[in-house]
Amino acid sequence: MRRRKARAEDDSQIDMTPMLDVVFIMLIFFIVTTSFVRESGLEVDRPSAATATEQTKAGIFVAIKDTGEIYIDNHQVDQQRVRASLERLIASQGEVGLVIQADKETRHGAVVGVMDAAREAGIKQISVAAQADK
């Protein structure tokens, strides 16, 4: 009689292995398909625009503060070294887009200078970040 009870208890357990396999596969799927938004790391007061759209294919972010200081990957870069820094990033990341995050008080010349350096470095897709009107 005891053998029959032991066998009934053993048969009533649920095998968790297939469920764990499915959970791990789903976890891997979500990790691989998730796109991470990178920012330049600096707080700039971006100008607002009614027609602002989200940029999804940007790989390089350049921040320009209202004082004219230029930051690429959280490192301050001199105006003359922007092109060399961008060329180095293109060599490591491949052909990617550029987003310029300029403060709304930034002088126009600083933004145009960064855009020229980016074009000379070989970047074809350049965007200027703006804050969407609400």
Automatic annotation (TrEMBL):
The keyword Ligase does not apply. It comes from the Bacteria. It is a single-pass membrane protein; Single-pass type II membrane protein. It is found in: Cell membrane. Keywords: Cell membrane, Membrane, Protein transport, Transmembrane, Transmembrane helix, Transport. Gene3D superfamilies: 3.30.420.270. Its main location: membrane. The chain crosses the membrane at residues 20-37. Coiled coil: none annotated. It holds the Pfam family ExbD. Belongs to the ExbD/TolR family. This is Biopolymer transport protein exbD2. It comes from Psychromonas marina. The gene is exbD2.
